[in-house]
Hints:
The strands form two sheets. Strands 1, 2, 4, 5, 7, 8, 9 and 10 form an eight-stranded mixed beta sheet that branches. The chain has a two-stranded parallel sheet with strand order 3-6. The mean pLDDT is 87. The chain is 36% helix and 18% strand. Strand 1, helix 1 and strand 2 (30-37) form a beta-alpha-beta unit. The protein is α/β, with parallel strands linked by helices. The chain has helices spanning 15-26, 39-49, 53-62, 81-89, 96-107, 153-160, 226-245, 248-251, 271-289; strands spanning 2-7, 30-37, 91-93, 122-128, 133-137, 165-167, 170-174, 177-183, 206-210, 254-256. It is built from nine helices and ten strands.
Amino acid sequence: MLIDGVFSGGGLKGFALVGAYQMLEEKGYRFQRVAGTSAGAIIASFIAAGYTAKEIEEILDELDVQSLLDPSRRILPFPFMKWIGLYWRLGLYQGKALENWFLEKLAAKDVYTFADVAPGSLKLIASDLTNGKMIVLPDDLPSYGITAETFPIARALRMSCGIPFFFEPVRLKVGSGDTIVVDGGVLSNFPLWIFDDERGRKERPVLGLKLSRSQEDQQGYPINNALNLFEALFTTMKNAHDERYISRKHEMNIIFIPVEGYSATDFDLDEQSKEALLEMGRSRTRQFLKTW
Length: 292
């Protein structure tokens, strides 16, 4: 059965999305179009490039996640300099190793730019902080004077996965200045709306895969200190737009995968945790498909 798919962000918790994709593939579902933010953008891009669920699992299983953390350059080799560098470079890690990894894996399927996938089959979300707006890639690139078809998907992924302060943001050269672009999750962590036409209709069934509990099952945020406040503030900010769109009608088409016990930036994730996330995705999808 042909469907469209939307994958939420969630950093390293995205292993659960791979487990969900495995179960969908096993049950005969195939994605015609895919979209995503951050971790969801990675899964969506690999699917659009032609990777099977098994191949994606193998790619992630062999990945040394620590190798993606390339520290920002600093003049003096003192540990405290990385925090001073953060002030100027806006991120602890360059993100070049991450982009090169995307490039390598996509190239293995002869996919380099958006021209190498079917038109309209892949849409990724990023956040333009300079102009305070969301970017849908590749659709919005012409407004920046960039040819959409020749834009590298690896660079688009780097933009969508650019966790603020963690990775240095991507700087798009627009005119005489730079446009700062970061993680799409800042503005839309779950773009379930992306395949709606002008009247809000869908061309085919759209299945959402969301790394969280449903709205009904979600608990409030305990706010007892400034750190709690920041976490609640950021979570509310990145989810508010998407949660407003989701209704009871939409929840019927969303696989909710509760992964609150894991960190999005836990780059020391052990094999047991990876398998637990994969199994969580499989089991939630298996349960969902019984009634969908």
